[in-house]
Amino acid sequence: MATFEVHKVESERALHAAYLVMRELRPHLTDAENFITRVHRQAEKGYCLLGVWQEQELLALAGYRISENLLYGRFLYVDDLVTAPRARSLGLGAILIDALREEARAQTCTHLVLDTGLGNALGQRFYYRQGLLAVGMHFRQSLI
Question: For the segment 116-134, what is each residue's pLDDT rounded down to a tens digit?
Answer without folding.
Answer: 999 999 999 999 999 999 9
